[in-house]
Prior knowledge:
Layout: E1 2-7, E2 10-13, E3 18-26, E4 34-39, E5 46-51, E6 58-60, E7 68-73, E8 78-83, E9 92-98, E10 113-114, E11 118-123
Parallel strand pairs: 2-11
Antiparallel strand pairs: 1-3, 3-8, 4-5, 4-9, 5-6, 7-8, 9-10, 9-11
Amino acid sequence: QVQLVEFGGGLVQAGGSLRLSCVASGRTVSGSAMAWFRQAPGKEREFVAALSWNAGITYYADSVKGRSTISRDNAKSTLYLQMNSLKPEDTAVYYCATSTHWSPTMTLSAYNYWGQGTQVTVSS
């Protein structure tokens, strides 16, 4: 089993930045792909970014590409999402997830373990 806990959400003005963190415990995730998803009120959960076990492969949603950077520190079992130039439409609960595979995917169902989420609110 893997437990994931997200940190770093909050209220920020449009144009600002946030760095989300996700700490994993339990089974090691160093060999697994990890990802960030988000869910806005009344909307389905959507893909944000993902990376492979060694961060050699990364994927980004078009909506965040160029404004966000996903990274990981396997020694600390921690996943990060640096988000810059935030927009009101980035407002959502952000979830980290991990799968049992090394290769990342944008498909929600491929991820087996999820955190409880952290709220990001961007004011205009």
